[in-house]
Amino acid sequence: RPRVLSGIQPTADSFHFGNYLGALRQWVALQEEHEPFFFIADMHAITVEQDPRQLRERCLRAAAQLIAMGVDPERSAIFVQSQVPAHAQLAWVLQCLTGFGEARRMTQFKDKSSKNGEGAASVGLFTYPILQAADILLYRPAFVPVGEDQRQHLELTRDLAQRFNHRYKKTFRLPEPYILKATAKILDLQDPHAKMSKSASSPGGIIEMLDDPKLSAKKIRSAVTDSGSDVRFDEEEKPGISNLLTIYSALTDRPVSELEEAYAGRGYGDFKKELGEVVVEFVTPFRDRTLELLEDRATLDEVLRSGAKRAAEVAERTLADVYDRVGFVPAP
Ligand code: TYM
């Protein structure tokens, strides 16, 4: 079975709708027909300052949320990045293959470092995409399910894989990004020109999966909508309504055209109220399940322990090939 791999940063207490609809839902779907590796990117998280206690807690919350949304620990290796040292080890080798200018072109670094000036950003933030390339290439996956904002990192990953294969010997598989067009970029509810983001969105702009469901329904009802009154999908003229239609359609599996018909002539108020109800119905069981799992630390620890073990077996084999090919003397 072809492998899939993806990761998520534990930088908030809760995942949000962008994470879920853009990526995590595809993790759940793809685990059926693939050999899945899914991890919590704690090493990426420390590229900006984190509170140590909170970081540890958020890793467990991330694991609980993944299981609650349907990532099956029997089928999928769920693990914490820092527990598989091969990630850091391969990242070094790949850094030595990356051009400085090439790394500088990564738009996420430009965005994230522009706030306080480049000089204040850590070198880790700069080399972040290269660690991500290592995360991916170690597992030789066929697909990497992510949102649109990760596309450039996937392109760098493929470039580095090709460069290594060419310079040494074919070692890495070129991974395909798995980005579903309809949900690749979920927008901020208060600013439908920006993506929904844990670092940039205002509280009203972001729906957190573990929020009180009533609060989430309220955020939907107060989402910024566009002038006019018909519920119609039009990203140019009606980005706010289009974003809500995308969310509605994804949560119910009803095509956008069917929703447009169902709400024809009924106005925004009805539409947002009913989407609020859909959201409550969806997040309530998810939230209950997550909170239940968080009560059982022993099980979470065991899931992460066995996940790291399965991951390390694969990752160490790839790393051994890499070390051999670059000419490192074998360890005794
Ligand atoms: P992160 O933690 O920012 O986000 C996790 C996943 O959620 C997707 N996403 C979105 N999709 C659609 N609309 C949005 N508004 C939205 N916001 C976030 C992201 O695209 C991502 O798929 N660098 C990665 C973590 C990572 C990784 C990896 C991913 C580290 N190593 C290896 C894949 C493979 C990140 O920061 O994702």
Automatic annotation (TrEMBL):
Keywords: Aminoacyl-tRNA synthetase, ATP-binding, Cytoplasm, Ligase, Nucleotide-binding, Protein biosynthesis. Its main location: cytoplasm. ATP binds at residues 9-11, 18-19, 147-149, 186, 195-199. It is found in: Cytoplasm. It holds the Pfam family tRNA-synt_1b. The keyword Ligase applies. GO terms for biological process: tryptophanyl-tRNA aminoacylation. GO terms for molecular function: ATP binding; tryptophan-tRNA ligase activity. Catalyzes the attachment of tryptophan to tRNA(Trp). Homodimer. NCBIfam families: trpS. This is Tryptophan--tRNA ligase.
